[in-house]
Design goal:
By secondary structure, this protein is α+β, with helices and mostly antiparallel strands. The protein has ten helices and seven strands.
Length: about 280
């Protein structure tokens, strides 16, 4: 309902043209309201579409405009509506949109998006309690390989990573035969996210993870191999390396909030300093 209302306002506002403009061909009218080619062109310029679809889009736009004008005129003539209150809300909505768009343009121009590692670390140290884990984090080796893949015992010998060269052999094999493969010794993932990929059943999660389990099993036409390399206990503080992108987003949001306030205050101060404001 909200989207339809906004869309209708957008369509109605597009047809407000100055009388001295060349509006082109008249496309439709509802009583005194008129829709011209220029109005349609403005709409087409504001959206993305494939050229072969332009005729269909134009027809839909015209039909929508007609329906909106019928309903709008009916509403404007209805004496049960509080027209003064509606006019006030429309004016307030217009004001908010203009201010929001101005702020967004100026924020995009002025926002510093460069965030140093030191700034991330400082934020992390000050807000550690915000990063308490609700689930285990793990570092893992995980493979999903069809049962008809050749030389499966090679993976069975190497997935436990007892030798330094094992991961190289696994990597070559997995790129050819694995349906799914994950290994990252530097980054953490949630164990529950891993469970979405591997059908582990009837396990004691706490014991399974803390034992750094290494298992192989077969399910639904696939061999599964899982090696828990390391873990972080739930209800402890999440490591900085895992939270880095999250912290970047937080810092950027703080900068945007502060910049919006500064932009508004600067514009207001400038208006007062230039004696544009008169209060009687």
């Amino acid at each position: 309902m909200h989207k339809l209302f906004i869309y209708s306002i957008a369509i109605i506002s597009l047809v407000s043209c100055r009388e001295d403009e060349d509006k082109g061909k008249l496309l439709a009218s509802v009583d005194e309201a008129e829709l011209y080619q220029q109005d349609l062109q403005k709409y087409l310029n504001s959206i993305q579409y494939e050229k072969p679809d332009s005729a269909k889009i134009a027809d839909e736009f015209i039909d929508q405009w007609i329906e909106d004008q019928i309903l709008l005129q009916e509403a404007e003539e209805n004496e049960q509506l509080d027209h003064e209150k509606i006019s006030y809300k429309v004016a307030a909505f217009r004001k908010d949109i203009y201010i929001l768009k101005l702020e967004q343009i100026l924020v995009d121009q002025q926002l510093d998006t460069v965030i140093s590692d030191q700034e991330i670390k400082t934020y992390y140290e000050k807000h550690k309690q915000d990063f308490q884990l609700n689930d285990y984090l793990v570092k893992v080796l995980y493979l999903k390989i069809p049962v008809d893949a050749p030389d499966i015992e090679k993976i069975n010998r190497t997935y436990k990573l007892y030798n330094d060269t094992d991961i190289e052999e696994i990597d070559v094999y997995a790129k050819i035969y694995a349906s799914n493969y994950y290994y990252d010794e530097n980054n953490w993932i949630y164990f529950d996210d891993l469970l979405k990929e591997i059908p582990l059943q009837d396990i004691n999660k706490d014991r399974f993870i803390m034992k750094k389990s290494k298992i192989r099993f077969e399910e639904n036409g696939y061999h599964y191999f899982l090696n828990i390399l390391d873990y972080k206990l739930k209800n402890t503080i999440s490591p900085l390396s895992f939270e880095k992108n999250n912290i970047k987003e937080r810092i950027l949001n703080l900068r945007i909030k502060e910049l919006r306030q500064k932009i508004k205050q600067d514009i207001i101060n400038e208006a007062y300093e230039s004696n544009s404001v008169k209060k009687y």
